[in-house]
Write a structure and sequence with these properties.
Elements (H helix, E strand, L loop, with lengths): L1 E7 L2 E8 L4 E5 H9 L4 H12 L5 H5 L3 E6 L5 E8 H8 L7 H20 L2 H13 L4 H23 L5 H16 L3 H8 L12 H21 L3 H27 L25
Antiparallel strand pairs: 1-2, 2-3, 3-5, 4-5
């Protein structure tokens, strides 16, 4: 399952793409929230399920609802009801809402975009750019993020072709590179930014993205020059590549007076709770 956040009229709709079934699965609660603008979409969906359970033919719909662990608003992965486009459309019919038709059109567009991506992978890049724009990222940041992702992909392609096959090994090498250039492990960097399950690179500043890319580019170049094979040889290349970026980072910080590693993030700003006035004062 490939998890994504999709945007409908500024609302986040959590989704997962099942490569085997070639289907999108959407969070039903998020769809309900869009349709009803309810303050408690979870309760609305619970009541709707009870109502629909008595209707003839609903058992077939219910059988297509699955519980998937996806990222909740608090950043933790929690199980929530999800289902495919066909079943979502059936549920929409039972929710009186002026947004029903726009949501249907949006769902059709999501499916069409996926088919376009399979035929022309470059469209996925265009969609990613548009998503980042909707999240308020600047054009300069988006360009840096996309360039960094291309550099990352070339490195992982090298690893795959040189006997790095386990996800755990990918994580080990990535962590060596990251700690070498930044002084922090990936987990420590996420903790500094107050992140939980969010993608660290989506919350980096331009300088952090740039030095991450430099470290990974350097690692690949060193690995290619040494024809590194397997985890141990690539560990050494990861340390060298990260150190190249570390020296560049230290020079940058000395000459500019600016720190590269930052606690800043792009998480939604939390509203401060209203102060309750003490009438006794």
């Amino acid at each position: 399952m490939k998890e994504e956040i999709k945007i409908f009229e500024q609302s986040n709709i959590r989704s997962s793409y099942d490569e085997k079934q070639e289907k999108w699965f959407f969070s039903i609660i998020d769809i309900i929230a869009v349709l009803t603008e309810s303050k408690n979409p979870k309760r609305y969906w619970s009541d709707l399920k009870s109502k629909l359970s008595s209707e003839e033919g609903f058992s077939q719909v219910y059988d297509k609802i699955v519980r998937l662990k996806i990222v909740a608003p608090d950043g933790k992965k929690r199980e929530t009801d999800c289902t495919d486009v066909e079943t979502i459309l059936r549920i929409i019919q039972s929710v009186p809402s002026p947004k029903a038709e726009p949501v249907k059109q949006w769902l059709a567009k999501v499916g069409y975009e996926r088919m376009k991506e399979m035929a022309d992978p470059s469209t996925a890049i265009d969609r990613a750019r548009e998503t980042y724009k909707q999240l308020g990222r600047s054009d300069k940041w988006i360009q840096q993020r996309m360039t960094g992702q291309e550099t990352r992909n070339k490195l992982t392609d090298y690893w795959k072709d040189h006997e790095i096959t386990e996800n755990e090994e990918f994580a080990i090498l990535t962590n060596i590179i990251h700690k070498e250039w930044s002084g922090l492990s990936v987990k420590e960097h996420k903790n500094l930014k107050g992140l939980k399950s969010q993608n660290l690179r989506d919350h980096m500043g331009e300088a952090e993205l740039l030095f991450t890319a430099l470290a990974e580019l350097s690692t690949r170049q060193v690995a290619e020059n040494n024809e590194a094979i397997g985890i141990e040889e690539n560990k050494n290349c990861a340390k060298i590549g990260g150190n190249i970026a570390k020296r560049a980072k230290e020079d940058f910080e000395e000459r500019t007076g600016q720190k590269v590693v930052s606690d800043e993030n792009y998480l939604p700003k939390q509203k401060k709770p209203k102060q309750i006035e003490d009438k006794n004062n």
